[in-house]
Batch of 4 targets.
Target 1
Amino acid sequence: MAKQIGPHPLAGPIGNTSFYDHPDDGPLARQKSSLDKARVLRDPHFEYTLYNAAEFRRAVAGATALRFAWRQVLKTAADRKLSGRMNSLFLKMVKSDTSSRWGERCLQNGQAGLAEGFEFNKTSKLANVLSLSCASHIDAATGNMYTKIPSFIPGQVLEAAEGATYFNIISVAASLDFVNKTPARYIKETGLIAIDRPTVPALRLEHAVATKAGEFLFLALGVVFYTLPENLPEGLLSKNKRRQLGNGDVPVPYTGTLAIVQTAVAG
C-alpha cells in the first residue's frame, strides 16, 4: 500500500487511485481493483476466495458481538486498532474448527482458549499496569465466574496512567451464542480507589452468568484510571472527547487496560 509523505494531502479518487486518511497511519493511497463482485461469484477460479470470505464473515460477526457486549468498558480500555486485531483473533478461532470442511468452519466448533491473554489495549497491557498474581476461574457447567485479587499496595504494584488520581478494577464477563449472535454481558467493579491509598484489601469479583450448552464464556480483568477533567493530560484525548467529559469536579475515566484472563465452553 502506498503512503503519501508529501506536503499536499488529498482525499478521494484520482483515476484508479483513492486517497484517504487513516486515523493511525496518516494519509494513504490505494489502487482500485479490476475485479467486480459478479465475476468473483461466478468464476470457478475464485472458489477458494469465497471459502475464505465466508469464514472471515463469521469471525467478524463473533468479534463484533463481543465488542458490543463490552462496549461501555472498551470506551476507555481499547486501542484504535482493536477491531482489526479482534477480527484476526476470531479468524484463528474459526480456523481451529477441525470438525468442519474448509469454507464451513465456524466459531462454535473452534477453540475458545485461543482468546486467553488477548489485550484490548495493546499500548497498555494488564500485566504491566497491575503487577499482581490473580486467580481466575470459570465453571462451565454453572456459568459462575470469579477473579480473586490479593491485598496490595497501589504504589508498589500499580503503574498509574499520567495524571491519574483514582483507579477502578473492573471484571467483565460474557456468554456468546455465535449462531444467533446474542451476547449477554456482566460487569463488576471495585469502585474508585485513590492512587495513594496505603493498602487495598483482598478482592473477589464474581459473576453468575446465565448460559446454554455450547456458548463461549469469556472473563476479562482490567483497570480504568480517573482524574478531574481539568487535570487530563494534554494530547491524550481528542478535543471532542475532552468537551464530552466537561469541566466538573467529579473524577472521569479517561484511559485503561483490559485483558481476557479465562475462557470456557458452556457444558
Note: The longest strand covers residues 252-265.
Target 2
Amino acid sequence: MSQIQAEEVKETSFIQLNANKKTVENIKLISMVFVLALLFIFSLCAGDVWLTPAQWLTPEAELFIWNLRLPRVLSVIGVGAALALSGAVMQALFNNSLADPGLLGVSNGAGVAVVMAIFISGNTLHLGLLSGFAIGGAMVITLLLILFSLKQGINNTRLLLFGMALGIGCSAFMAWAFYFSNNVDMRKIIAWTLGGFGCIDWNEAWLALALIPAIGWLSCQGRVVNIIALNELTAKQLGVNIKHWRILLVLFIGWLVGVSVALAGMIGFIGFVVPHLLRLWGITDHQRLLPGCVVAGATVLLASDTFARLALASAEIPTGVVTATFGAPVFIWMLFRIPGGAAK
C-alpha cells in the first residue's frame, strides 16, 4: 500500500470515528431530553396533594397544577439551563475547569445588586427592574474577572482566587445589609441568599421568558467556544476576534446569571457540576456540550427542587441548600482529581 493510500485510509477512519462519536453524543442528548420530560411530569404530579396526569383537568388540578406547580417547574427549568450553560461557557472563556458563576463571584455580584435595589426601593421595585439590577451586578463582576485575567503573569489558580475573593467581598456586603435591614427586607435578603422557588407563580414566572433568547443563542455558539477554549494565539490564527467574543459572551453570561438570581436567588454549583458530569459522560465537544448543559442543567435543578419540596412533610427546603449539599462534595472531588491542585 502506498503512502497516499495509507493516508486516505487514516482520513477515512478518522471521519468515520468522528461521525460515530457525533451519533453517540446525539443519542445521549436525546436520552437526556427523555429523562427531563419524565421528571417534568413527575414534578407536576408530586406534592402534598399528588395528582396523576389523568387528574390534571379536574377543578382541583387547576390550583395545584396550573397555578402553582407549572410556573414553578418552568422557572426551575429555565434557571437550571441558564446556570449550567453559563458555567460551561465560563470554563472555556477563562480556560479554567473550576469556573462557575457562583464560585467566581458572578452570582454574588448579582445578589449584591438585588440587595441594593431592595434597600433603595423597599418593596416597590418592579421585578423587571430588579432583574436589570441583577444583570448589571453580574456583568460588573464578570468584566472584573476578564480584566484581571488579561494581566500578565495571571494563571488560572490566581484567577480562581481573585474570583473567590470577589465573592467573599460580595457576601460580606450582603451580611452587613442583613444586619442593618428591617424585618421585611431581612426576609427578602434571606430568601435571595438561600435561593429557591417557593414564591414563584405566574406573576414572577414570566421573567423566565427573558432567558430563552440568551439560552438559544449561546447554546448555538459551540464552534466558537471550541476555538476560544484552545488558546488566544490559535483563535487569532483561525480568524476569531477574541476581544469581540469575550465582550459578547460576558454580556450573555451576565444576562443569564442576572435574570436567574432575580428569579430564584443564589443557586450554587449547577454551573460547575453539570458541565463536568457531561464531560465525564464523554460529551466534550462544545457543539454538543452546550445544548447538553441546557438539558442536563434543567434536569439536575428540577430534581433538586422536587427533592426540596418532598423531603419534609411540613416544610420546604430551599433549593439552593440542596444544590450546595450535593455540589460541595463534587467540587472537593474535582480539586483532588486535578494534579497538583492547579485549576486547568
Note: Residues 80-341 form a domain with the ABC transporter involved in vitamin B12 uptake, BtuC fold (CATH 1.10.3470.10).
Target 3
Amino acid sequence: MAEDIRIDVIGDLAKVPGWVDMLRDYISLAVARHEAATGQVVDPDSQIGPTLAQADKYVGPDGRFIVARAPDSRIVGMVMFHRLATGKAEVKRMFIRPEARRSGLARRLMARLEAEARAMGLSALYLDTTSGFPEAIALYRSLGFDDAQHDATSVQDPTILEHLVFMEKTLSP
C-alpha cells in the first residue's frame, strides 16, 4: 500500500478536503493517549482551536503542510511545520491513519518534511509529543532526534507543558 501513496506539499488548504477531520482524529487520539499516560484530562477543543486558527502559517512562506494521499486521493497521513524565531522548523501534528500505519509512511513524510525545512535554510527540526506516544518517540529517535529543552519561541498549552517530551534534530547544510 505504501508505494501507492503520494506525498504532496499543500499550498491551499481549501483544496484538501478532509484535513480538518484528520486533524480532529489526531487530536482525539493524542488527548486519549495523553490522559492514559498522565491522568491529566485535556479538552480536545483546546488543542484543535489553536491549530485551526493558525493554519495559514503552515502553508505560507514560513511553513509547509505535507500530506500522504491514497490512490483514491483520501488523506492517510499528514505532518506540518512552521519556522520558529530561532530558525528551527517546529514539527506539528504528525498523524497516520490506522490503515496506513506500519508501512514506512511516517518515515516518508518526515523525509519530505526534512527536505523542505533544509531547502528553507532552517537549522533544525524541533518537536514535542506527549509521553503517551512511545512509538512516536521511538520513531523520532530512530530518525536522529535527541531530547531537547523546551524552545521558548514555541507556543505551548501551559497546562500540559510538564507532560511533553521535546526533541530536536540538527539539519546539516
Note: Helices lie at 19-38, 44-53, 105-119, 134-142.
Target 4
Amino acid sequence: MSLLEHLHMPRLSQVGIYVKDMDSSIRQYEEVFGIGPWLVMEGETEYCLDRGKEVTVQGRIGMGYTGRIQLELIQILSGSNLYLDTLGGLEEGIHHLGFEVDDLDERLRACREAGIDVLQRGTLKQLGMTIDYAYLDTLDSVGVILEFIQTRFLGMKARQWPWTIKLLAGIQKRFGFP
C-alpha cells in the first residue's frame, strides 16, 4: 500500500510556491498567465512549531486560483524560513502540495502511525479565518512536502472555496484592506 493510499488523501486543493517578491510575482501570474484576482494577507503566525522549536514567522500570503486549484504564494519577511531551507538551494519555487482536511489532529495521528513526521505546524488568523496547517516531512519519500490545511471561519468548519477567495480579493482591491 502506498503512502498516499494509507493516509486516504483528499483531493489536491493547493500548490504552495515560495517567492522573493509578492507584488512582482502576482503581476507575473496576472499578466502572463491570466491568474487572479489575488487575496493578499500580511501578518505573523498565531502559533508555529518549526522542526520542534516554537517560532514566530512574519510574512505575506497571496491566494489566487486556476480552476479549482489554489496557488498560494508565500513570502517570508522575518523569522524562521522553512521554505528556503527545503528548496534545495533555490531562492524561489514550488514548496508544497496542500490538501484541505476536516480534522487536522486525526490526519496527523495517521501520519505518526505511518512514520511521517511534521516539519512545521502552525496557526494563522486573519479576516475571520483561522487556518491550521501542518507541513509533513515527505520530501525524501514522495519528492515534495505535503501539507494538511484545516480552515475555520468565525469558529465554524469552512473551506477555502475559489468564489470566497475571489470575492475577498475583489473587496480588498476596491477598498484596500487589510
Note: The chain has a mean pLDDT of 90.
